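A.,

Following up on our hallway conversation. Structure tokens first:
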């Protein structure tokens, strides 16, 4: 005589049978699992609605990694998964301020927070694009150093060209270390290491803001 696990399931009544139980249901345990899926699904649909879920709330799912067995996931985990997914697609906003580079095709607009550069020191950074333009704005002391420059920082060619700017903004092509360029000036350079250098020799701390446009 066959055991319970070997008994095949044959529906006794087939009126209104919607074929949710397929031919693979061949033993009592599988039948119990399938019936539980059906009755629980109806119960979920008939349950009261909740307008605003909280992190501890749970949502039933069919786990594809476990042959679609019924499981649950918290609203907190759903939000975390969606955040990870969308963070990879879109730029983030913090307090209404866009962070990161704004990319148009292969080019980008790269903004920065103001940099406070003390006297006789230099800063350096790697632009997102090796060729482009830089808008330089002095935020303190209002020295005549604001300017618009074109740059190139490829491994074979380094160039910084002042298109417009004040008399106290000077252009170089090598590494600026803090006391490399002319004293009393704000010096800026591009180099083949892929970096742009800004050197302050104005006699005191200066706050600099710059925006780069990739070409």
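Then the amino acids I'd put at each of the 215 positions:
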């Amino acid at each position: 005589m066959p055991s319970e696990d070997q008994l095949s399931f044959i529906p006794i009544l087939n009126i209104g049978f919607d074929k949710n139980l397929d031919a693979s249901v061949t033993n009592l345990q599988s039948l119990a699992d399938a019936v539980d899926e059906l009755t629980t699904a109806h119960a979920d649909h008939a349950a009261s609605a909740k307008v605003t879920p909280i992190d501890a709330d749970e949502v039933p799912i069919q786990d594809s990694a476990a042959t679609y067995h019924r499981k649950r996931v918290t609203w907190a985990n759903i939000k975390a998964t969606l955040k990870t997914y969308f963070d990879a697609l879109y730029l983030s906003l913090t307090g209404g301020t866009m962070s990161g580079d704004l990319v148009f095709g292969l080019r980008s607009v790269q903004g920065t927070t103001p940099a406070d550069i003390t006297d006789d020191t230099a800063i350096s950074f790697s632009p997102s694009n090796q060729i482009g333009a830089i808008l330089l704005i002095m935020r303190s002391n209002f020295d005549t150093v604001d300017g618009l420059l074109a740059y190139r920082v490829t491994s074979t060619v380094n160039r910084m060209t002042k298109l417009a700017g004040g008399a106290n903004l000077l252009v170089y092509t090598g590494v600026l270390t803090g006391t490399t360029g002319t004293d009393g000036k704000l010096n800026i350079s591009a180099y083949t290491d892929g970096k742009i250098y800004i050197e302050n020799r104005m006699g005191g701390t200066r706050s600099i803001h710059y925006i780069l446009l990739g070409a």
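Residues 156 and 192 are 6 Å apart (CA to CA). Curious whether your intuition agrees with the design.

B.
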